[in-house]
Amino acid sequence: MKVHHLVLLACPECKGPFTLFSAGGEGSDEIETGTLCCQACRKKYPILNHIPRFVSMNTYSDSFGFEWGRHARTQYDSYTGTKISEERFFHETGWDRDLRGKILLEAGSGSGRFTEIAAATGATVVSLDSSTAVEANYASNGACPNVLIVQADLHHLPLKENSFDRVLCIGVLQHTPDVQAAFLTLARYVKPGGRLCIDVYRRRRGLLRLFQTRYFIRPFFAEMPPERLYAICKGYIERMWRVASVIHRIPRIGSRINWILLVPDYRDLLPLPEDLLKEWAILDAFDILAPVYDSPQYRETVREWFTKAGFIDAEVEYGYNGIEGRGTKS
Ligand SMILES: C[S@@+](CC[C@H](N)C(=O)[O-])C[C@H]1O[C@@H](n2cnc3c(N)ncnc32)[C@H](O)[C@@H]1O
């Protein structure tokens, strides 16, 4: 972390300010190893490999650490040569492309494909994840002077409440143990007049649920070590790939059949060459089966959360990842 980012952090227990003890040389702005000590309650937190750490070693999000370690660059625009992440970021958030002078929180960054986009707006970006995905994010974005990467749980944030101009949480909420609680916690960190953007998987009603095969298959893989599950997913996608490209040609429903067969099929959605489509499919097959929690939501429920948390102008609609919501805090 950079010394000048210390002011962005606060003790997750008592919100007191930190004193920084660095193991490195004096005068450098970059801290590789050190300790943050709360001036109020005296709790201490380590900085390891440049990243302040606020979580214990094992969490329910460990599979994500594995996933993003394996696919550290797969979804980055700077890797695919596309604008897939950039377009999704601005489409979902509706935010300006120039956010200089603003402070932005990204909760659940994964490998950091959206951190890269957020950093390019010029905002000061605090990007956190509870898993070791932060290592992948640091490798790609840690050198940016306007990015602070933190390993922390969004339920116990080492940050000041009501202090962020923008809060972003994409692809994360359904993977938390209590989705409403996670939403309401994040909402507290948006400053009055600031904006929140989230998305969450969509819960289907009635018979349509039967097509969400992941929820029937996942219990068979629960508690499987991530290395083993990843090998199974990779082998499955490699064996199914040719069949899936034939199924894809079935008019209107081909792609849907592939998703039901748990072959993530982005052919009509993303402008990627064949090898990258397959790489994304392997990543997503694992991402579908590995999470400990996956709680899709109804649109009305998400609307209620925005109202409950005091957001005005909330727009909650169906979108790329299920349900997308954005609003301004009153
Ligand atoms: C599906 S990934 C999405 C990553 C990224 N936002 C993206 O869209 O590429 C979900 C991420 O949320 C993180 N996550 C889950 N629960 C969390 C929590 N309580 N606090 C912080 N991060 C969490 C996981 O570790 C994982 O990296």
Compact overview of the structure:
Helix content is 33%, strand content 20%. The chain is of the alpha/beta class.
**Tell me about the biggest sheet?**
7 strands, mixed
Q: Structural class, from secondary structure content?
A: alpha/beta
Gyration radius from CA atoms, angstroms: 20 Å
Low-confidence stretches: none
Spell the H/E element sequence. EEEEHHHEHEHEEHEHHHHHEE
Estimate the global geometry from the Cα principal axes.
globular
Number-wise, the strands total 11
Tell me the fraction of residues in β-strands, as a range: 15-25%
Distance between the termini: 32 Å
Bound molecules: S-adenosylmethionine
Helix content: 25-40%
Spatial sequence of strands, sheet with the most strands:
7-6-5-8-9-11-10
Q: Helical element count?
A: 11
**Average pLDDT taken over every residue:** 96
